[in-house]
Every structure is written in structure tokens, then in C-alpha cells.
Amino acid sequence: MLSNPKIDAAYVKALALYANLASVTGIDIGSRYTAGVSTGVLAVRIHVVEKLGTDRLQDVDQFPAVIDGVPVDVIQGDYRSSAAVA
């Protein structure tokens, strides 16, 4: 994938703002999804343990729809390494 300075900057900003939240399991750049189907639009994707509806969140707990003009997609996924740690 070719580098895009605008998307790269939004990604770095998302890392700084959200990477240390307990509910966040990862942050990456990839295709935005709607109803499980790729839209073909690149977005900053914030992966969370559990995706909650806006009715269950206070404004301060919600991720923005865009970061510096780049779409944000919130994806539910609790990722764990399958490798055993010795």
C-alpha cells in the first residue's frame, strides 16, 4: 500500500490519543467497513474489545467519526497471541 501523509498523520494521532485505553486492542489503517462489507475507502481503524452503541456511551467515551479529515472505523475484536509464552 502506498504511503499517504494525511492518513499516516491521522494514524499517528489516533495512536497518541487512544492506544493506551484498556478497551482498545489495536489501531491500524485499512478499508472501512459498513455492515460487514468493505467500502473501499481507507480509514484509521480502532479495534476495541466490545463495540457499544452510542446510546451506551457518553460523548467523552466516543471515538470521532474522522480524525483530521480521515474516516475512522471502529471494529470489535479482542486479539490474543496464539503462541504460548514460556
**Element string (H = helix, E = strand):** HEEEE
Oligomer: single chain
* Separation of the first and last Cα atoms: 35 Å
Provide the helix percentage.
10-25%
**Low-confidence runs of at least 5 consecutive residues:** none
Shape: globular
Strand order of the largest sheet: 1-2-4-3
Q: How large is the share of residues in beta strands?
A: 35-45%
Q: Number of DSSP strands?
A: 4
- Mean pLDDT across the residues is 85
Tally of alpha and pi helices: 1
Short description, anyone?
The protein is built from one helix and four strands. With 86 residues, the chain is α+β, with helices and mostly antiparallel strands.
Could you give the topology of this structure?
Elements: H1 5-18, E1 24-34, E2 37-48, E3 66-67, E4 70-76
Parallel strand pairs: 2-4
Antiparallel strand pairs: 1-2, 3-4
